[in-house]
Amino acid sequence: MFKTDIIFSGYYGMKNTGDDAFVEIANWGSSKFWGVESKRFLAKEGLLPKTLEPVLGYPFSIPKTYLLQRKWLLHQTKYSVLAGGSVFNDVQPGSIKDVTLRMKVRHKRLKLGAIGVSIGPFKSVKKENEIIEYLKHMDFLSVRDKRSYEYASSLNLEYNPVESFDIAAMLPEIYNFSKLPKEKNSNIIGISFNNEESHLINGDLVNEKRRRTFIISLLRYLSNHGNYEFRFFVFNANPVRGDEAVTNEIIQKSQIVNYEIFQYQRSTINTWNALRECAVMISSRLHASIFACFADVPFFSIEYHKKCTDFLKDVGQDESYLWGDGEIDFVKAAQSVLSILQNDRTYIPPAYKEEMIEKARLNFTAFKIR
Predict the structure, then answer these.
(1) pTM of the entire structure?
(2) Which of 24, 90, 176, 237 lies at a CB distance of 3.0 to 4.6 Å from 264, suitable for a disulfide?
(3) Are 100 and 112 in contact, with CB atoms under 8 Å apart?
(4) How confident is the model at residue 304, as a pLDDT?
């Protein structure tokens, strides 16, 4: 009953839409491409997203037993797979990487893999060496950006790393996106913003303030130059690291009147469909930009992190739509948005979007699970 072929782990059950998408895709892809039906996700079941096909988390909702349940489940599985996200920064004591590495060293029976992940950045040489040691004991690895691929390839691992892409690029296939009608002549501007620096040790708060001033000025300008509706997406509803407080602050300071807040939902497809209704998307949240890109919604990203820059480079975002870390003049940025809102035929889609969808499929097609 509790034996599985795969245990998936990541930042699951954290009320984060991007990580919820990883659960949706890992569940679907492992069935479709690997033929695996027996699997679990290491998170409290009541916090996992509502996926198209139901997923299993920890079997028991008993407080203070989850570490014991994790150990028990890992001893009952064939594969431990990290699916999606920036999960290769360090190996914290007691973390899933620490536990599975020790199991691998002792028994060698458990196979370790990762799909659609990023490697680094590292806070110290010690942290980097921890990750290198883990990578050496893995059985397969696919990374979602060229920088991570080049790094992994330089380590002379006993397996060949695969250069893939973020698995969220597969959402159109899962949701039969091409078959769904899209609202025409939408006047909705989607926004997803986060305040990442505030949650980091030694985060650059001066840069965060500048970034926030940019988005406030931009939105105020847009609201004064057309009858637009602003839809704010709370992609992360975590009470500590979430988006709600900064979203409310931006709304208040930009003095927008015609707006709605689309709160976090456990059903990822609901967020996907709400975002598809937008005429344009402005985001500092990586997965809000990824959703927009592959839902064919014109988008602009604020590159607060290297992973955002990597994404824009990989999909081939047109240079005229690059804002850096909100470092361009807000009027110039607003005019780029307005030109698309006034005539969507002027929009230049990302050059390599279809290629990235095919690369995303490599997260599953490059490996065989036995």
Answers:
(1) 0.95
(2) 237
(3) yes
(4) 87
